[in-house]
Each structure stands twice: as C-alpha cells, then as structure tokens.
Amino acid sequence: MRDGMIAPMQLTLLGTGAAGGIPLWGCTCAACCSARDEPARRRRPASAALTHAGRTFLIDAGLGDLEQRYPDGVNAFLLTHFHADHVQGLFHLRWGPGVPVPVWCPADSEGCADLFKHPGCLRFQPQAPFTVVDLGEGLTATALPLAHSKPTFGWLFADNERRIAYCTDTRGFPPATAQALRDAACTAIVLDSTYASDHPAPTGHNHVALAVDLLVASATTRGVLTHIGHECQRAIDERRENIPDHIVVANDGLVI
Amino acid sequence: MRDGMIAPMQLTLLGTGAAGGIPLWGCTCAACCSARDEPARRRRPASAALTHAGRTFLIDAGLGDLEQRYPDGVNAFLLTHFHADHVQGLFHLRWGPGVPVPVWCPADSEGCADLFKHPGCLRFQPQAPFTVVDLGEGLTATALPLAHSKPTFGWLFADNERRIAYCTDTRGFPPATAQALRDAACTAIVLDSTYASDHPAPTGHNHVALAVDLLVASATTRGVLTHIGHECQRAIDERRENIPDHIVVANDGLVI
Fold first, then answer.
1. Which conformational region is residue B253 in: left (phi greater than 0), alpha (psi within -120 to 50 degrees), or beta?
2. Which residues contact B222 (CB under 8 A, 6 or more apart)?
3. How confident is the model over A39-74, as pLDDT tens digits?
4. Which one of A18, A65, B86, B255 has the fewest beta carbons within 10 angstroms of its own beta carbon?
5. Do B92 and A21 touch (CB under 8 A)?
6. Does A113 reach chain B within 8 Å, measured CB to CB?
7. Which residue of A has its CA nearest to B43?
8. Contact flag B121-A25 (C-beta cutoff 8 Å)
9. What residues does A76 pair with on adjacent strands?
10. Could you read off the pLDDT of B5-55 as tens digits, one per residue?
C-alpha cells in the first residue's frame, strides 16, 4: 500500500475518568449523581484506542469489557504505567489462547499484581525513555517520560499527517518531555487534568489550570483534558474553570 | 425483629467463570464461540452476593461493574483470596467516599497490587482459619482454609435454617475443612470445578470428577459446580462428564 493511500490515524478516548471513575462508588455529589442519571456523563478508566491502516492499538487497558469490545484481538498495547486503573483489563485478557500480543511499556520492576509472573499471551516489552517504537505503515510511537509516582510514559504518535500525544498520568512535564512536545508541534495533546484548579496540593496529577498552562506552553493546535476526577467535573459544570477555546474537556467516546 | 421473621439467606452467583472467563479472549473453541453468541452462556469472574435481612454481602469482587450493581453500597465483602480475578473490582470501588466497608479476608502479606497501601474506604480484616465472623441477625460466616497457591478461604454461611458453603479456589480440601463441611451437613456447597476430568494434572483447582467426589463425601444435600473453565465447559456440553443428579453446573445468576 502506498503511503498516500493510508488514512490518518484516529484516536478514540475509551475512558476519561480518574482512578475511581465517575460516578465514584457511594458518592452523592452533583457530578456523581448526574453521571448515574445520564450514562453519557459516566467516566470510565482513562484509556484510548488508536486505529491506523486497519489496525488497532490500545493505550492502557483499564476497561473490564475489552474481550467484548475487541473479540478479534488488537495489534498491541501501549501502557502509560502499571497502576491498577490502567492495566486491570489485562488480568483476564492474558489467558486468551491467541497469538502473542506486544505490550510496549515503561520499565517497572513491580508491574501490577502477578502480570509479569503470569503474562499469558502478553509480551511485555519495557522501553527506555524517548524510544521510538515503529508500529509499521508509517506510524511511530515515542515514549515520553512523565512525572508520576510510578515509571510513566506519555505516548507521542506520529503518522505522515498528524502528531497526537496522550499524556496521563502526570503532574507537569519533565523538561525534556516539554521540549519534545514543543518540537513536535502537536496536532493534539490529550492531558491529565484530574483535579479542580482550587486543589491546594495536587500530587501525581495536574489540576485544570496547570494542564492549561502546559498545553498553552506546548503550542499544540488542540488540547484535550482527560483523567477527570469528580471534583474537577463539578468545577467544570459550575463554570469555575477558565479554559481557552482551543482546549476541550474530553468525554468517553471522543474521537480525535 | 424476632428471628422467626427473618427470611432465609439467599446466595446469588454473580459470576461462575475461571480466571479468564468464558469466552476467553481470542478463543474460537465451541464453548467460547457459543458464549459470544448467547450472553446467557457467558461466565464472568467467580463471585457471589449473599442477601439476608435486607443486607448484602459480596463474596469476592471480580466484576468490574459493582458500582452500577450496588450504587448504594454493600454491608461487607468476604474474600476468598487475593488473586486478581477475585478482587479486581475493588480497585475503583475503594476510592468511594462513603462509610468504611469491612472486608473479611485471609491473612496474605502481599494482597493484590496496592490494595493494602491505598485501601481507601475498604477495611481489610484478615482472619485466622476457622474464625466464625458474626454478620448479625443470626447470620455467621466461618473461614474454611482451602488448598490453593495463595492463602485462601472457603466461606461457610449459616443462618437459622440453612448452611451454604462457597469454596473457590481449591484443589481438594484440607482434612479439617472436609471434616467441618461434613459436620455442618450443608444445605448446599458451591465448589471449584475449573477443569475437565481428563485434565492430566490439575493444580490449584479441581476437575469435575474430583469436585464430584468431594461433594459426595461431604454428604451435602446439593452440590453446585462453579469457576468453570472453557475446557470444562466443552466436556459438560459434550456430555463427557458424569455428574450425579443432586449436583448442578452453575450459571451466572443462579440463586441458591
């Protein structure tokens, strides 16, 4: 197939929630109650699917229904890190008898639970920061180190037309990652925005104002806020956040 | 409330599958294909709900949709053990802001992933083997040690009328547990039956013939086979297993 015949990559956000999702179990705040009433307002574990040239790559695996969504398999996983809300969907998928599936991931000696001890059909392939993974058909994924409580990567995808970065979980960017994102002149950056801007001491994750500052500094064409917690959701619903026009708040199912 | 006014406990099997569930990801065997075609043949992670006197106790938490099934919370969890397919539903539930929830469980220094480090609303309460947990309203749960690759309990529930034992994951019974089950003269025993009887070397789990032998030896009124793997399912579908009339093969949703 000639390069010119391949449609641009497409990134679909499968989940856009912080670790507990929205609604949080037993929470009666306005954001959680409205998500119970309106399924479109639910936020599942932050994760995404990148499709390109008839292939599917999953970024993280926090959803519990991946067998039903992808019964015929996927081409590979790219993990941001090994916290449970980002890998819990692998616990049952791994026992599938199909062909081995590459799992590009940060080097993390712990992994999550017994995933490394019993990988099943998964082939974990730890990468060094800034490694460029060749996904074939002119598509690459660059591992961008992030600032989180476990070794964590953002993934910068590039095809012949676009550059899309997917960056959860992080608080700020390490300088070299910020520089790489500026240099890439990204078409879109999907970024962690777990907390409301009035959070007194965000750790491990951005709040909205910090995420907006990072996106503006990156000079991306489009910013997308994800990994949204329920307090952040309330602040957005109550119009307490100041978000520029070129930055949108994601919802589950958003296509980029 | 007088004892005589409380209805007997009711046990609902929420999931009856082995670790990978049925269908297994990417598997094209007859059992997995038919489960994709007929949702009633799906087997989710082995787990159950015990209801009694208006209260709900969950045995294991392998399902990913417990927030939607139990938005108002549950009274407690009773865990068999800390393998991922039995506890993965706790990873997001724990972040709920509601009242603390007791989690009766075996003593296991590892737990699963970071559940002990970040328990959130969960109050893990490790128990010694044969501890009798008082669940109130005349309901008790006895921790029966099982034979598995991690510290594992079966749970023997007793109210004024019935004694129901729930025993996954195990290969055989330790002698003291077999004796306790005989002494209890159980109304029903739900038992691990992961493998087909022609499995050459079952480890950590029963095959059907072993499960049947254990149930017959226990002299229970009713046996229920659960934690079914896809090879076991095929053997059952193809009528290759010899199962006495008082023993049934569970399905998701079965009420005992």
1. left
2. B187, B188, B189, B246, B247, B248, B256
3. 999 999 999 999 999 999 999 999 999 999 999 999
4. B255
5. yes
6. yes
7. A92
8. yes
9. A57
10. 789 999 999 999 999 999 999 999 999 999 999 999 999 999 999 999 999
Domain B10-249, what fold? Metallo-beta-lactamase; Chain A (3.60.15)
**Length of chain A, please?**
256
pLDDT in tens, A127-143: 999 999 999 999 999 99
What is the secondary structure of chain B as a DSSP string? --GGGSPPPEEEEEE-B-TT-BSPTT--SHHHHHHHH-GGG-B-BSEEEEEETTEEEEE----TTHHHH-TT--SEEE-S---HHHHTTHHHHTT--SS-EEEEEE--SS-STTTTTS-TTEEEEEE-TT-EEEEETTEEEEEEE--SSS--EEEEEE-SS-EEEEE-S-SS--HHHHHHHHHHT-SEEEEE--B-TT-SS--SS-BHHHHHHHHHHHT-S-EEEESB-HHHHHHHHTT-S---TTEEE--TT-B-
Asked if A21 lies within 8 A of B91 by C-beta distance, the reply is no
Question: Is a pLDDT exceeding 90 seen at residue A2?
Answer: no
pTM exceeds 0.90 for this model: yes
Chain A residues whose CB is inside 8 A of the B65 CB are 64
Instruction: Give chain B's residues under pLDDT 70.
Output: 1-4
E-assigned strands of chain A? 10-15, 47-52, 55-59, 76-78, 101-106, 122-127, 132-136, 139-145, 153-158, 163-167, 188-192, 223-226, 247-249
Domain boundaries, chain A: 10-249
